[in-house]
Amino acid sequence: MGNRGGALHNDSREIVRQFKSRRWITCLLESKGRQRSVMSPGSYTELFFLDEAVAFAVGHRPCAECRRERFTAFKSAWQRRVEADTEAPLRVLEIDTELHRNRVDSRGRKLTWEAALSSLPNGCFVRIDGSAYLVWDDALLLWTPERYKKRESRPSSLTVTVLTPRPLVQCFRQGYEPERHVSWRAL
Q1: pLDDT (tens digit, 9 = 90+) per residue, 144-176?
Q2: Mean pLDDT of all residues in 114-136
């Protein structure tokens, strides 16, 4: 589950904006016994993803509260990707600001980029012939909202549209592996 910094819906539970702030996070479905009603008036809008890899593809990062261990691993990969001085504190605001510049343009449209498929690490999402695929090892996993549906061999020479924002791809190169939905195992 995730959110984009606040309410994206109105009192009639209609989506009226794509995001409220630069803070796009992924949370646990259950944490500290909290109970919520989806799209409560005046509260943040819950977003649901198949898995963490999908959440990253649209530009979310792990929550620092309910997913502390994943956030710490992510933050370490982020620091390694920028070769930051590990003694200088990395602020979440810096991460969220850079992610936002790489996820949507000034009109709120998703930013994508082109890359050689062979150059991409595990965890990236790409678009090929109008479909979304998760890149993992020597395979492409066809994504559907319910599950990964099909496993295809990863072509050796193909340029693709990358859906995952660049800074997140760089984190994957630094060792952060996003969690995948269990459906990939059946392929």
Answers
A1: 999 999 999 999 889 999 999 999 999 999 999
A2: 97
For residues 156 and 159, what is the distance between their CA atoms, to the nearest angstrom?
A: 10
Pick from 43, 38, 41, 42: nearest CA to 1: 38
Across all residues in the chain, what is the average pLDDT? 92
Q: Where are the beta strands (DSSP E) in 94-162?
A: 113-116, 125-128, 131-136, 139-143, 148-153, 159-162
Mean pLDDT, residues 84-95: 76
CB atoms within 10 A of CB 30: 10
Contacts of 147 (CB under 8 A, 6+ apart): 50, 181, 183
What is the pTM (predicted TM-score) of this model?
0.92
| Least confident interval from 83-87, 112-116, 125-129 | 83-87
Domain map of the chain by residue range? Answer: 2-186
Residue 169 to residue 114: CA distance in whole angstroms = 12
The span from the CA of 34 to the CA of 178, in Å, is: 25
Instruction: Give the bridge partners for 152, in sequence order.
Output: 140
Q: What tokens does 28 get?
A: 């646990």
Residues written for the chain:
187
